Amino acid sequence: MITFSVREVVEQAIQTKKLGKEFYTQMAEKFRDKAELKKLFELLAAHETRHGESVPSLETQLSDFN
C-alpha cells in the first residue's frame, strides 16, 4: 500500500485545484459567446480558487494524523 504524508496530500490538492481553475477558465473563454455556459465555468473557476485557498489550513488540522 502506498502511503503519503500530509504535506504530499495537501500539495496534490493545491495542484488539483490550480488545474481545475485553469480548465474552467479556459472553458469560460471557449464559451464566451454562450452567456450561461461562460457564467457557469466562471463560477466553477471561482469555487476552485476558494477551495484552493482553504486547502493549506488542512495541513495544520491533519498534521496530528501524520
Mean pLDDT: 88
Shape assignment: elongated
Query: Could you name the ranges where pLDDT drops below 50 across 5 or more consecutive residues?
Result: none
- Report the portion of residues in β strands: under 5%
Order of helices and strands: HH
Describe this structure in words.
The protein has 66 residues and is mostly helical. The protein has a domain of 30 residues. The protein contains 2 helices and no strands. Helix 1 packs antiparallel against helix 2. The model has no long low-confidence stretch (mean pLDDT 88).
Keywords:
single chain, 66 residues, mainly alpha, 2 helices, 80% helix
Brief rundown of the structure:
The protein has 66 residues and is mainly α. It is built from two helices and no strands.
Lay out the secondary structure:
Elements: H1 6-30, H2 35-62
Helix pairs in contact: 1-2
